[in-house]
Amino acid sequence: MSTNSRVKYILIVSFFSFFVFWYQFGVKILHPSYYMWLMDGDPAQHWLGWSLFRSTPLLQWPLGANYNFGMGVGNSVVYTDSIPLIAIPLKYILYFYHGDVQYTGWWLLLCCALNSLAGYFIVYRLTDNRKYAVIVSVFFAMSPAFTTRALGHYALSAHWIILYAIYLMMDKSLRTGRWIALILIAVTVHAYLFAMVFPAFALKCFIERNQYGKAKSSMVFLLSLILVAFVMYTVGYFTISSGINKSGYTNYNADLFSMFFILSKIDSQLFSFLTEIYSPPSIESFNFIGTAPFLALIFSLVIIVLNKNSVKNLALLVEKSGKPVLIICTLMAIYSLSTRLSIFGHEIFHLEPPRLFKPITSTFRASGRFTWPLMYLLVIFTFTFIEKSSGKLAIPLALLFVVIGLSDAEIKYQRIHNRYNTPYHKEYSFNAKWDIIKNGDKVVSTDPRIDAQSWMKMAFISYRNGASLGFGYFAREDKNKIDEMKRKVINDINTNMTKDGYVYIVHKDNITSEAWKRIQLSDGYNVIDGMSVYKNP
């Protein structure tokens, strides 16, 4: 097929993905200055982390370090889930522009399009049917796992990274350049995506070692490790020395049948009755394949029962896909179950993970996410099998499944659409007394963990006034540095050595009674929004 024809089909897939994006989210979130839809919870962390990062020094190392949000905590754009791949280059492009900017809407549109395109390339490779692949590509833009992450965990919406890894796993050759590029992109988007892609690459190198030579495969793998380490340092993974590991590996696991159950009734009108049987306890355990793929899977099973010869199509599909992709997706799905196996929410057994694996299980504790590769592979296999087994009916069937999927998710999409086009605040404002915080000031607290509860307000004020904030809400935080900063702040106040350019949020119980009396009598003392605030007069 000519280059023009390939481009034509790519454009068609892109158009369909934009339609699905509009149907789910609307277009208002594409406006760069429309940030109000992000001012809540994790979305606010993502946007405010980026907004404070924008005013960090042009020349700094690591490039992703974000002193303005966390200060001594050692934060970076990695730990506010601000997508370093976008945040770091955009900081330099917009450095002299001081207006509000959000890129999340465009990021979601990009993910929607790339999810579709990745699905299109995989299905086309397996079916050699471009028209059919175009139709099926829609399911990767409306995947419930993608849509759910697009409600707040925006970096994790990049499921195209997983899909392209599956595509490369199916390739008979070791596409070294493409693999390394994908790995580096993954590590600059989100650590969990990297954790899904890198093992796939490692397995591919191991399997292809005889074809390319053990020495060459080993060198390629070693080079990738060096590049990954360098990029991780550059974007700010190593800005914290403690706090990476967290408990909860067996709390955020997937159920054995989580791919076939919904989180709430709005996830599927047709299968809403499934919530009476079982409903995942959290978003981390939600891996529903989607109403249309579920129906397509049932349809495929019916074909197999009625036509025993169709099993040959399944065998050919597995052979064409290659064993590596099946192995890695299965291994990740096993990890997603954790050491607490449950079926329909009923615990079968619960074991503590071996101490040897604690560094992995405590870093990647939300294990339920690792079901995604197998979930997508199941969707791919299902629709590929239908194409091989249905002949001329394949395209009409695919269109029917698309209509069913869009119709079934209409209520959920409408809610998402309304949420993203009706902001939490018409304009986020704050008490005028906070104008005591000036450009270049540093806002610190005698109890950063308590004041972290009001992190969003203080982060927004610091961003607006050009200040740095010494506490906040982070995906990971250096607990040792938090405690060290707390001790220094308390010592400054107790010894009457408060610094110019610092704004102190003071808690009476953390300082001596003498220091508290002295501060209250000072001209620099204010009570703002119920918070005791001190700044050298």
TrEMBL record:
<feature type="transmembrane region" description="Helical">
    <location>
        <begin position="219"/>
        <end position="244"/>
    </location>
</feature>
<keyword id="KW-0812">Transmembrane</keyword>
<feature type="domain" description="DUF6311">
    <location>
        <begin position="438"/>
        <end position="533"/>
    </location>
</feature>
<dbReference type="Pfam" id="PF19830">
    <property type="entry name" value="DUF6311"/>
</dbReference>
<feature type="transmembrane region" description="Helical">
    <location>
        <begin position="103"/>
        <end position="122"/>
    </location>
</feature>
<feature type="transmembrane region" description="Helical">
    <location>
        <begin position="286"/>
        <end position="305"/>
    </location>
</feature>
<protein>
    <recommendedName>
        <fullName>Glycosyltransferase RgtA/B/C/D-like domain-containing protein</fullName>
    </recommendedName>
</protein>
<keyword id="KW-0472">Membrane</keyword>
<dbReference type="InterPro" id="IPR058671">
    <property type="entry name" value="DUF6311_C"/>
</dbReference>
<feature type="domain" description="DUF6311">
    <location>
        <begin position="17"/>
        <end position="407"/>
    </location>
</feature>
<feature type="transmembrane region" description="Helical">
    <location>
        <begin position="325"/>
        <end position="349"/>
    </location>
</feature>
<dbReference type="InterPro" id="IPR046278">
    <property type="entry name" value="DUF6311"/>
</dbReference>
<feature type="transmembrane region" description="Helical">
    <location>
        <begin position="370"/>
        <end position="387"/>
    </location>
</feature>
<feature type="transmembrane region" description="Helical">
    <location>
        <begin position="7"/>
        <end position="27"/>
    </location>
</feature>
<feature type="transmembrane region" description="Helical">
    <location>
        <begin position="179"/>
        <end position="207"/>
    </location>
</feature>
<feature type="transmembrane region" description="Helical">
    <location>
        <begin position="134"/>
        <end position="167"/>
    </location>
</feature>
<dbReference type="Pfam" id="PF25853">
    <property type="entry name" value="DUF6311_C"/>
</dbReference>
<keyword id="KW-1133">Transmembrane helix</keyword>
<feature type="transmembrane region" description="Helical">
    <location>
        <begin position="393"/>
        <end position="411"/>
    </location>
</feature>
